[in-house]
Amino acid sequence: MHQFSGGTPFGSVTGLRAMFSNVICSAVTATVLLLAAAPPSCWSYGIAGQIPKWWQNTIIYEIYPQSFYDSDNDGFGDLRGVAEKVSYLQELRVGAIWLNPFYKSPLKDNGYDVSDFRKIDKRYGTMEDFEYLLETLKYTSRSNPIELIMDFVPNHTSDQHEWFKKSVQKIEPYTDYYVWKDPKGYDGEGKPIPPNNWESIFAVGRPGSAWEWNPERKQFYYHAFMVEQPDLNFRNPKVIEELKDIMKFWMDKGVQGWRLDAVPHLIEDEELRDEHGNHDKTQNLPETYKIIEDFRAFIDAYSEENYVNIFLTTEGYAGPQETVKYYGTDGRVGAHFPFNFLLLTDFNAETKALNIKNTIQSYLDRLDDFKFPNWVSGNHDWPRIPSRMGASSATDIVNIMSLLLPGTSTVFMGDELGMDSYWNLDREACPSGVGDDYRTPARTPFHWNSSKNAGFTQASKPWVPVNPEYYRTNVEVERTLRSKYQTSHLENFKSLAALKRENAFMYGELKMYDLTEYVFAFTRQDDNNIYLAIMNLGKGFSDPFVLEREIPDLAQASPRKIVMRSVNLQSECSNVSSCYDSLTSGEWSMPPKSGMVLAFRNSTTDSSKSKLMEHFESFRAF
């Protein structure tokens, strides 16, 4: 729980809390800017006395461009294809799109091996296509602006990058742009011995696999990932300045945010000491956090100079203590937030209600007022939701969690439809190296409709095979399933996205409950409404529970409407009365992997408002 503190011209904060325990925080927050007052009883979760920035409490929609939409019918998704689908993004109420890499690349690692950071790979289109996409997002979406976040890969380049080629030849200033080291010695056959035992992420179990001998330079270079992805040397200030220049190039074009890839790997132990397990000399070193703070200072200075608000997030799979450090400190800030992967790492088909309750609470408890929460429910590196959760209906459960818990939501394209990983795809029909990649089943083409290739392309063959389930899991079909008796994952997602903008979900307190071993619930509320999200995480029907006994706040509240119900709850909850009767009967067993969101009138709130409260309300439109 994160509350504001400090002085106010109206008396003590405690006094204000007593007078207005249920102040609508959006109105108060706007008033704060004018009156320098601290909002009372406000669970800000990182919005500390200010109007929310564009990246706060929004939906970030990750787009894997080669699989989103093919505009030129070559079987490969492109930037123009993203621009042609902006109206769909508006339909989802997303606040930003995060585009996976589209830089010039040999595509050994699907674009994360960059050979030129200032050029667009011709398979994705041209710079004109990119500028058209920015223009389309800006002008088509004026009533619902959509910002563009670029994927940036600062840790390494492709071995085809000009920097690396010149570094091999020791052409200045590129000689030390990469991590080069002499061999430890030579074996009996005269072969060079790697400097230490560091292992590549992609080649675990092979001692020295993170080092590759270059016969021309006669030294080893370090690569945390593929051999074709040499690591940049972050101990060289010129490298950092080069990367900042690249960021400025794209920000000058209108990019509003950055997702920094693989940040735990940015810097390594300077003494090259052997590791003793868990990459203790090559990940999350203290200097890494200072690098992120330096990037943040750079984009903040750019933002101030150019009257924009550039956003910075980081990707790094690390423990809670290491991850929270990427926020920086209130004296020297780091990322606006590091991606929170708990809905990926700690939420699966076996998770119990108490476990997920404790996971969420532990995460929120680590956040100070300047640390804003966020939730990642899927991405291009993980199996899709149905595979992770053991049922397609669990799509709705994960989306409830991602969109309605406090903070910003990041979702992977297709998760709003319930798309699943295509585990049995024909790997021989994939490009070289792609078929063997364990991540490819989650990266198959997006499902637009029931036509050939799911409407992704008019080409005879897409770049990777389409999941055959596209005939029933696609945008066109799911748009039509909206009635009293049926719904779809897409329609449920849109209902949740609309709800996310309500005051209760922007500022309302979060209360969580484990009603049974597998039934998890939470509430968010404002002056007028209490919203209940309830879900059965189990594989079977739940044990019965008495809702009002477990959640006292609902005892005086009256049910108003069903906001959404999962696709497997249609017959159980066709109207709010029958649904509420089931929930309060003490006899109802909730179906497996099901969930719903209900709205209640908050009967405990005094309907009459003081003059001061009306004054606060008058600033709502500020």
Give structural notes.
This protein is an alpha/beta fold and 622 residues long. It is built from 19 helices and 20 strands. The chain has an 8-stranded parallel sheet. A 5-stranded antiparallel sheet has the order 16-17-18-20-19, with helices on both faces. Strand 12 (311-314), helix 9 (320-324) and strand 13 (337-338) form a beta-alpha-beta unit. Helix 13 packs parallel to helix 15 (489-499). The radius of gyration is 26 Å and the shape is globular. The relative contact order is 0.11. The model is unreliable at 1-42 and 606-622 (pLDDT under 50).
Number of helices: 19
The average pLDDT score comes to 88
Tally the beta strands. Answer: 20
Query: Which radius of gyration do the C-alpha atoms yield?
Result: 26 Å
C-alpha end-to-end distance: 26 Å
Strand arrangement in the largest pleated sheet: 13-12-11-5-2-1-15-14
Give the overall silhouette: globular
| Alpha-beta content class | alpha/beta
Low-confidence sequence ranges: 1-42, 606-622
How would the blueprint of this fold be written?
Blueprint: H1 13-19, H2 25-35, E1 59-63, H3 79-84, H4 86-91, E2 96-99, E3 103-104, E4 116-120, H5 127-140, E5 147-152, H6 162-168, E6 180-181, E7 185-186, E8 192-193, E9 211-214, E10 219-222, H7 237-251, E11 257-260, H8 286-306, E12 311-314, H9 320-324, E13 337-338, H10 342-345, H11 353-365, E14 374-376, H12 385-389, H13 394-404, E15 408-412, H14 475-479, H15 489-499, H16 503-507, E16 511-514, E17 519-525, E18 529-536, H17 547-550, E19 558-565, H18 576-584, E20 594-601, H19 611-617
Parallel strand pairs: 1-2, 1-15, 2-5, 5-11, 11-12, 12-13, 14-15
Antiparallel strand pairs: 3-4, 6-10, 7-8, 9-10, 16-17, 17-18, 18-20, 19-20
Helix pairs in contact: 13-15
